[in-house]
Every structure is written in C-alpha cells, then in structure tokens.
Amino acid sequence: MTKQKIETYITRDKKRNAIIAFCIVLSVFIIIAILELLPGNAPDLSQEDEIGVSRRILFPFVFTDESKNLFLINDKYEILPIDDTVSQNVHDISAGKVYYLRSNALYEYNIKKNTRKVLVNNCIYFRLMEERSVLLVVDAQNMVKLYQFKGNKIITLSNKSVPNLLSDELYCVGENGVVFADNADPETGKIDLLFSNNDGKVKKIATAVDPGKNFYLSNNDKFICFKKDGALKIVDTKGKQVVSVEGAQIVKPSINPVLTEPSTETFILNQTIPITYLLSDVTTSDNTTTAKLLYFNGEKLKNVAEKVSNIIYYSAEDDMILYTVQNEESSVIYMSTNGSKPQKQITCDKNATFMYQETLGLLYFKNEDDTLNRYKVLDISLKVSKISDNTGFLYGYHNKKIMAYQKNDGSHNAYILLKKGNIEKIDMENEIRLYGLDDDAYLLCRKYSEDKLSLDLVINDEATRLCTSISNGVYFDSNMEYVLYSSEGNLYIWNNGSVVDLGSFSNITPALLTA
To answer: Is 263 helix (H, G, I), strand (E, B) or coil?
Structure first.
C-alpha cells in the first residue's frame, strides 16, 4: 500500500463513468453507470451524515437468514427469533418497530415488548410514510389502501384495480399524502391519477394520463406533475392546472457514482422531487442533443437558456444548476440560481465531460485529450487549474468527503483521496475499504485467495486482524466500536478486541433502516 501527498483531485469521464460496487463476498462486481442528460437523486452529504457505509446504529440489529427467518440481536448479544418465512422487512428506528410481510399479511413487531401482531391481511406491498399515523398498503388486486393506526382502520383509496403495474408505477408517496394510478384503460393502458391525504380524502387529479412512471409529487406535496398525450403537466393537489409543456422532462437532482454502497439499505420515506427545472424542445442534430431549459417558480415558467447540451449538476437545496451550451468548436459552462440570468463560467472542449464535487464546490472537466482541469464554481476569479494527464474514472464515497479515481493505464488500481489531501492506492479487484465517521479509520476487506477474504481494522495506518476468513456482509456502527460479520457459517460480533460467537447463521440480510 503506497501513500502520497497531493493538493488536487482527479475526476472521470461522465458519459463513461462507472459505479464500483464491492460486495463483502468472494468476488468484486463492477457496475458501469451512464450518466445521461438528466441525473438522478442526490444523497445528503451534510457534516452529521458523514458516516460512510456504516449504520447509524448497530443494535438492535434486525435480519433474516437464508430461510427468510426473522431475528433481532440486542445490545446484550441476545438473538431473539421474531417470525419465519418473511419478506419486505423494514426496521423503523424512531418508532422501535419492525414491519414485514408473511403469507400476504402485514405484521408489526414491537421491539420493546417482543410481540407481533397482524395489521392488514391481503397485502402484497406496503410503505411507511413520514406521518407515522398511516401506512400505505397495496393488496393482491393492486388496490391502493391506507391503514390508519388510530382505530386500526383500513381505507380503500382505489376505485378500480390497476393490474400489471409495478409498485413504483402505481404510486408516489409524499410527505403528507400519496398520488396513485387508478382505472387503467385495458386497450391504451392510460390511467386516472388520484391524490389522497393522510386522512384518506381522495381527489381525482387527471384522466387519460400516459402510463408508466411518469408522475411525481413535489416537495411539500404542493404540486403534481405527469405526462398526458406527450405533454408534461403541472397541477396542484386539487387538480388545477398550472402549466403544460409539450415534450418536457423534469430535471432531477444530481448523483455521482460511488466507490462502494452501504451493506444496509436505507428506506426512503417519501418519493418527492423538486419540480423546478424542466427541459423542453429537445432536438438532435449532428449527434448532439440540445434542449431549452425552463424554470418553474410555482406560478409560471421562465426561459433560462436555449440549446442546453448537458446538465452537469443540479442541487435542489441550493437551487443551483450548472449546464453547458455547445457551439461549433467548444462548450460553454453556465450557472444559474433560482432561475436567475445565467452566469457564464468558462469554456472547454466541445465533448468535454464533467463531475461536480459539491462538498468542495469544485467542478472537474476532462477535455477530449483526457487532460483534467478544475475550478471553483463560486470563486469570482474562476481560475482553471490543470490537474492531470491521462486520467480515468472518478468516484465519490457514500456519505463522505472522500474521492477515488483511476488512471488510464490498464491497471485495476484505484486511488482514494482523503480530505487532508492524502492518496492511498488500493487494488480494486481484491480489496475494499469501509469507512465510518473517522477518515483515519476503516475496515479493510482483502481477497487473498480464490475463496478467502480477510477483515482488518485499520486506525492511523496500523492494522488489527479481526478475522482471516469472512463471508456475506460486514456491518458496523459509525464509530467502529462494534463489527458484525460472518465466518465459516457462524455469526460473530467484535467489540474492542473481544469476539462473541452468536451461533450458526448464513447468508444474513439486514432489514431496511428508516432514514
């Protein structure tokens, strides 16, 4: 392992960027993600959330084994059986409850009481909502319902079953309500769109809406957007149309590829997106796609720019957008906030690729000759600095101000760039680092033979061996006081040098954790 010191960061080709997802198993998988004109949702990287791929809490640890039996490990290392043959288990941290399905029934498990009960029968899918007074339920006929905890009341929201729609095509959960599909036309597939608040009061929003996942709720449940006859329509939750734009698309907040994903998935309570920037009048000429950029202020649309060729970055929190406009020989980068008059930034190659590092406010762009440059977007000087030649892919790190990059040298090496400017080289095929809150501490998982993976705790460059042969997943709290791992069919907990054998468990899967 080598170490260097640098003062700059390296980036990657956006159109060819790759998401490297390392699994703590006997192999390492590489997933290539192509960032298109419209990016996806972005993670929150505020200071309190810089916990890497650790869990916010390790105990109680709720999981299923390979037979789908559900268990809980408490802080005394006791393993409590909850139920058997379960699915869709979610651990609601704040409520101290676990929700899951068994035999098409929705159960609630009370962690404090160690008891369970059936909430809803005939349920194939459910969602927790931010307002914990209700649950969203979908039955075997794809009918959408609300379960109200007060009075154990079930309210049917759907008028007519919508068969053959996946859950993410059937509804969109907001902060205080849900918009959902209803009454599908058997020939065209077009749907009615309905909105319900948490009291179960339903309002028809639109009819003959284009099918598929084409509808969204805005932040604060203020607006609903959907597509009808090819036009993007924005209405309020009473169905009153505010704007309609032919062939438009919503610009979603940006996300960068990450080097590794958390071993415990987070359950997102609402599916709202900012309905602020739109792209319309999309045209393609000479292999270049351009569009008009519009801004929605809640009442009307404002034209921000013409012939936009690339959305580099969009932050809903800052309401800032970076984009390019191409001319015959180059691309010009612009910035706009709150739909204001665009500010010209710098000029780069026509086919340059980009990555914005939001926590540092740096925009990296790689020109056609693979020369990497950067500048600070909010710096009045907009001074461009050359960083490297022959640069390759760049990745972020989940919930950390850590970056990693590759070189175009044909190797499998990656270089992890820490906040202090240090570079640590790793072999992407054979090792992975799992960071928590501290940038100077990580768990090192290293493949040393065809079917063997070791586990070390590294603090300030000093390594302590935790296990010679691990399998399945590694789970730990943000301060790395506790590490849970599987080895040769048994489950173990490491705590400050001591190890406890929890017994025989294989292929465990943790319950989703609420955000």
So the answer is: coil
